[in-house]
Amino acid sequence: MSTPKNSIFTNTPYTTGVDVQLSELLSYKQHGKMSLNAKRLPATRKLSGNYLSNIKGRGMEFAEVRHYQAGDDVRSIDWAVTARTGKAHTKLFQEEKERPVFLLVDLSDSMIFGSQFAFKSVQACHLAALLSWQTKQRNDRLGGIVFNQQNVAELKPTSRGKGLMSFLHHNQMLCQKVAFKQTQKQSLLLQLKRLSHLVQTGSQIHLISDFSQLDEGCYKLINLLRRHNQVTVWQITDPLEMQLPKKMLKANFKITSLKGSGFLRNKNQQHSYQTAAHERQQIMQRNLLKYGIAHYEVSAANPLLEQLNAYAQ
């Protein structure tokens, strides 16, 4: 992607769209109160604990016992106290004040791409920053995993501002592919496994990636995470991945993908490219719908806040 003209970035937190500055991520603090509506997908299982979200559950923190009143949930009756006193009593629960929030941020090689406004990796960091500031605004505990092709940073949930700054710092560093101690080659599947060991039951989980590495193993792990947590999938996309411009037929551009490379030579090949991309997207949407997982598409072709206004309450 050629570096966009500076005028494109006027009044946006983006500097170049190719890399990320910490100041860009800090600028989302002012948007921490933005409230997003998750899509109204059916909840196949209630969460443990209570949280003001689309998936409702009863608070699990016991508060007190009082006399049963008409309209109380019979499931909350304290049978031990009722038997001891001879009068019906019901348990009251108070809302849990904190909830662990985990962000999985994919900055691997397929994310280092953008055809119009910004790299997908840059958009992922901006989205992660917004979600991080929202987490802090709610006084929830923030943790997560940030990874690129060679390195991974794992952060346990903390409610301190220091934890948020550490998370933003790792996003900036790994987006620029700054090498820490190199480990084995990282992948989405490997990080989902890592996340499944890190999360606590009743957590809110945000998965941020282009999901180019999504396979059956990843689906199984996402479904496993979904069973006891609220999972939201944020797919970072670029228009060029779904539809190739017609002028590419005349320019004889070379196309490279995870499955190989070649030249686009006729309209049939162009149509096949678009059909395959559309089918992959439909399969992903069907699988996530089957699991009852909210799915957002965020394009790297436009500023983040312009797109999220459509989801704001």
TrEMBL record:
Residues 64-246 form the DUF58 domain. InterPro entries: DUF58, vWFA_dom_sf. It holds the Pfam family DUF58. It comes from the Bacteria. This is DUF58 domain-containing protein.
